Amino acid sequence: xxxxxxxxxVAFPYRGRMNRARRSNDWGFPRWRGxxxxxxxxxxxxxxxxxxxxxxxxxxxxxxNSPDRxxxxxxxxxxxxxGWDYFAGLTAEEAAAREASERQDSEGYxxxxxxxxxxxxxxxxxxxxxxxxxxxxxxxxxxxxxxRRAWRSKAKEVHPDVxxxxxxxxxxxxxxxxxxxxLRAAEERRQWQG
Length: 194
Hints:
Among the domains are: 46 residues, no CATH class; 75 residues, Orthogonal Bundle (Helix Hairpins), CATH 1.10.287.110. The radius of gyration is 34 Å and the shape is elongated. The chain has 194 residues and is mainly α. It has a two-stranded antiparallel ribbon. The longest helix is centred in the last third of the chain and has 27 residues.
């Protein structure tokens, strides 16, 4: 009995003209390749300041509450932002309402700053805390022990029992007391949050 032979179909290779491999600019690292063709010219937006030929990568609002934007280079964006008044043209009540709504939107960021790199003196104190530190004559990065020492020393000088009948001393003592209460509440909030 003769052995059975299997018939295998052999695919013949393509004998037509094949494209030559092209040289790439990414040295064989595919992640370096762009999503589009890397040989196309890239469009660059120039700075909107007249006479500036640097790339305009920093958007800046043309006016408050406007979706239109200027696109400046970093130098001209810094110059533009130095003179920017976010509350221009608003009454005091409207400015306070806008500040409250902006603060409400960004409260989560302020709270999260406490857990990371933030410490006192780097923007984590509120305006009330800064005023309270000014009343006590302290720097912005003062810790709570320094607040307590300053409050005790200044309160002893203007206490109503030490200076009876002195209206200015009574007002100064009240201001010191309120400043200490603001800073104490802030410190308790920081301790409670982590």
